[in-house]
Design brief:
The structure is a homodimer of 256-residue chains.
Chain A: H1 18-36, E1 41-42, H2 44-51, H3 55-65, E2 69-70, E3 74-76, H4 77-88, E4 94-99, H5 103-110, H6 112-116, E5 119-126, E6 135-136, E7 139-143, H7 147-154, E8 158-161, H8 165-178, E9 182-185, E10 198-201, H9 204-229
Parallel strand pairs in A: 4-5, 4-8, 5-7, 8-9, 9-10
Antiparallel strand pairs in A: 1-3, 2-3, 6-7
The structure holds a DNA duplex (30 and 30 nucleotides).
Chain lengths: 256, 256
DNA sequence: GCACCTTTGTGCACGCGTTCACAAAGGCAT
DNA sequence: ATGCCTTTGTGAACGCGTGCACAAAGGTGC
């Protein structure tokens, strides 16, 4: 399948925008669902709706991959699944190690979505000697002393860190030293990594805090709206900190 | 931007950019660490380094909150901790429900970082009757039939969904119907929610796929570079995209 | 073959976020 | 006080991502 294998000067990099890359897995999931229902083709409008994005954005995203659609018809589901999988590098096998087999590490090891698409948990690693040898999700836990040899013999390039925050940086350095160049970090720590190593972080606490911010804003908005409509009303106790009225919210600059 | 610009309280709450809000928890964590070490003040350069961001960005972020720094000195750690906490709404208590007590749900229930900052697991909910009554992380699991009353009696406005993908949308609708307006979704599903409801998603599989993309790109680059220097190997698979600095800083989730 | 209808692919403009660079502001030494 | 040194706060430029709107392209029916 010659997919536009143009050997043009690579100077003008046909690099796919990061934002697009982040959406490709979303499209892929929606397409896989369609594929399982044996839907042959799909329009940008339908697919965009399923993926929760705007159709123009989806078409632009696909345009970075090439012209895989047929005007007047839409996209061939199977073909698109293949193209996106290939672009994301999912046609090959990615051995992954999970370091830190606590509650979260064990949950990830058991997570089905892991193996579903090219990813394979090659090893579980923990620093606790009493964990060594135990089976989690059918995989034996190995001691962190052997981290380097495990990474090396399995050809691991992607590591998942689910250790406590204090251990994360050290584990990260050992992973990188052993040859890992992509890290998915669940520990509440900002990892310092050398050039060329990709880090993505998943932080529960941060997500909740962002939600709390919006939640607070919504509450404040409701209150002030109610206040506008009926300037009367019982003073809401509010734990001592008045946050909503319109005073003391934006610091520094006090509106008259 | 001179002072005396934002005088209109109407849309004032739109003040803080979303990107800034997403970084505030990061700053807060770094500041908390400094606070525990009794560091009195910190410069934008130091704090930025600790949070893994650029110092100019940090200063601009803080400028949205107000002028809390002292020129020539830096920022007062304790004061900044308080201001950011207040801005994020962490000075109040946020009851949270977790729906779907499988491996992941249980891991989250046990996660310490939860309670650390204003968040409290008010209830665990699962659809499996055999789970009902069991204790997870010291909290009894309740049946999903009682979802609405649980949300109502606890005044829950934030829900965490850790169900299988197939159940997520339905659970989401029930949560929203019961009054939840912020949802943290771990299920591999695009949730459809009405206006006014915030959804943030955390998707393991997507994160890994994004890493795989970059990993593949790095591998292709290495190959083509080696190929340039000494074209003696086998044919390069092609697919090596252009250069693009690794960022490793894109948050794991996207705002809804 | 031709006209019509549908849907893609994209040029363009706009807005947000990032980064640079520097003037203003505060502290400190003299 | 005064001048120097440090660091903040922010105007301005830039780049990326998004969404609109439409021409081009392919299929279909007559």
């Amino acid at each position: 399948m010659a997919t536009g294998r143009n050997h043009r000067p690579a100077t003008r990099s046909r690099g796919i925008p990061e934002a697009t890359v982040a959406r490709l897995p979303l499209y892929l999931r929606a397409l896989t669902a369609l594929s399982e229902r044996s839907v042959p083709t799909v329009s940008s409008e339908e697919l965009a709706s399923a993926a929760g994005v705007n159709s123009a954005k989806l078409r632009k995203d696909f345009s970075y991959l090439g012209s895989y659609g047929t005007r007047g018809v839409g996209y061939d589901v199977e073909y698109l699944v293949y193209q996106i999988s290939r672009e994301l590098g999912l046609t090959q096998d990615w051995p992954v190690v999970i370091v830190g087999i606590g509650n979260l590490g064990a949950a990830l090891a058991n997570y089905g979505g892991f193996a579903s698409r090219g990813f394979r948990v090659a090893a579980l690693i923990d620093a606790d000697p009493s964990m060594t040898g135990k089976q989690v999700a059918g995989i034996p836990v190995q001691h962190v002393d052997d981290l380097e040899s495990i990474v090396h013999t399995n050809g691991v390039s992607i590591g998942v860190i689910t250790t406590p925050g204090g251990a994360a940086q050290q584990v990260c350095e050992r992973l990188v030293g052993a040859g890992v160049t992509s890290i998915l970090n669940f520990a509440p720590t900002v990892l310092q990594v050398p050039e060329g190593v990709d880090v993505r972080k998943v932080d529960l606490s941060i997500e909740l805090q962002i939600l709390a911010f919006h939640e607070q804003r919504k509450a404040a908005e409701d209150l002030s709206r109610r206040d506008e409509e009926g300037p009367r009303g019982v003073a809401v106790p509010e734990g001592g900190r008045g946050e909503q009225g319109g005073d003391g919210d934006i610091p520094a600059v006090m509106p008259a």
